[in-house]
């Protein structure tokens, strides 16, 4: 912990370990928290934890809201079901510590492809990916909403963020939610009078956060953010056995160090988006 203020010490003791937005993630984060000290609670960037005076201060400094898009979804036998929101929220908390702004609670409902199987079961997302053999309902997934409903939820949140005084919103997480978000950016900017940011085409080739499904990228990010929520021993020992419902490079090659690299590359792109828009 680089920040030795009484608040942060108390907070560290309260959280005990690596919270998604609570205690610092690595030395760099701790340093940034210390640098970001400007008020009562330097480490607090989550909207739900702010007192009104803290909210006013952070909003006046940088009127950017971060909206983590997530799921409760099978991410292999080796990662917690909330991996999507944990990754997007953790990335955004780090952005908020470095650039300012406030992180909203994650949305755990999201769109995805869906179809009805021959036996009448509803299959969603990874239930019928190539790596799921045979196609079947994967345990723990309970996040799906129709695209129209997800749009309505996001619209309602944007209305409230505008009302609260935000000028800009960055949202990301869970592929289908990410794609739905960037597909409507221009129309929503006009409708809500907000600057909106996401993983658009101009940065998607270099974006390194949540770019596979429970494979090397997501597993590494989770090992960096929340190592206690990853158990690689749950994966088949033999490389000849393909992990079920996992898409991308082998998660058995994941590491926390690679996860941190992916986080840093993604944060650099968020900085560029904000910079280009004149927000920093
Ligand atoms: Zn994911």
Write the layout of secondary structure elements.
Elements: H1 6-15, H2 26-35, H3 52-61, E1 64-68, H4 83-99, E2 102-103, E3 114-116, E4 122-124, H5 147-164, E5 168-172, H6 175-183, H7 185-192, E6 195-197, H8 201-204, H9 216-225, H10 256-276
Parallel strand pairs: 1-2, 1-5, 5-6
Antiparallel strand pairs: 3-4
Helix pairs in contact: 4-9, 4-10, 9-10
The chain binds zinc ion.
Zinc ion is lined by residues 75, 83-84, 174, 210, 213, 218.
Explain what this protein looks like in three dimensions.
- It is a single chain.
- This protein has 280 residues and is of the alpha/beta class.
- It has one domain: 3-Layer(aba) Sandwich (Rossmann fold), CATH 3.40.50.
- The chain is 42% helix and 8% strand.
- Strands 2-1-5-6 form a four-stranded parallel sheet.
- Helix 4 crosses helix 9, helix 4 packs across helix 10 and helix 9 packs across helix 10.
- 42% of the residues are buried.
- The N terminus is likely disordered.
- The structure holds zinc ion.
- Zinc ion binds next to helix 4.
Helix content: 40-55%
* Major sheet strand order: 2-1-5-6
Cofactors and ligands: zinc ion
Strand proportion, as a percent range, falls in 5-15%
Order of helices and strands: HHHEHEEEHEHHEHHH
CATH superfamily: Creatininase
Task: Using the 3D structure, state the CATH architecture.
Answer: 3-Layer(aba) Sandwich
């Amino acid at each position: 912990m680089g920040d030795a203020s009484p608040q942060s010490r108390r907070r560290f003791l309260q959280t005990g370990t690596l919270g998604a937005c609570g205690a610092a993630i690595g030395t760099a984060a701790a340093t940034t928290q210390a640098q970001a000290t400007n008020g009562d609670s330097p480490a607090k960037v989550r909207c739900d934890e702010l007192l009104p005076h803290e909210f006013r201060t952070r909003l006046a400094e940088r009127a950017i809201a971060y909206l983590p898009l997530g799921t409760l979804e099978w991410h292999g036998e080796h990662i917690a079901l909330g991996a999507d929101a944990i990754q997007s929220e953790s990335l955004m908390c780090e952005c908020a510590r470095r650039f300012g702004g406030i992180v909203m609670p994650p949305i755990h409902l999201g769109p995805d492809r869906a179809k009805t199987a021959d036996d009448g079961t509803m299959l969603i997302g990874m239930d019928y990916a190539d790596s799921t053999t045979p196609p079947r309902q994967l345990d723990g997934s309970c996040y799906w909403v129709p695209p129209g409903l997800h749009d309505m939820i996001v619209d309602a949140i944007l209305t409230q963020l505008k009302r609260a005084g935000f000028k800009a919103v960055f949202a990301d997480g869970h592929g289908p939610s990410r794609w739905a978000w960037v597909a409507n950016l221009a129309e929503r900017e006009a409708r809500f009078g907000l600057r909106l940011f996401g993983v658009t085409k101009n940065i998607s080739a270099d974006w390194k956060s949540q770019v596979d499904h429970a494979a090397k990228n997501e597993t590494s990010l989770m090992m960096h953010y929340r190592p206690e929520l990853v158990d690689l021993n749950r994966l088949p020992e033999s490389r000849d056995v393909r992990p079920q419902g996992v898409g991308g490079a082998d998660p058995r090659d994941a590491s926390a160090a690679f996860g941190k690299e992916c986080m840093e590359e993604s944060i650099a792109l968020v900085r560029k988006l904000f910079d280009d828009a004149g927000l920093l």
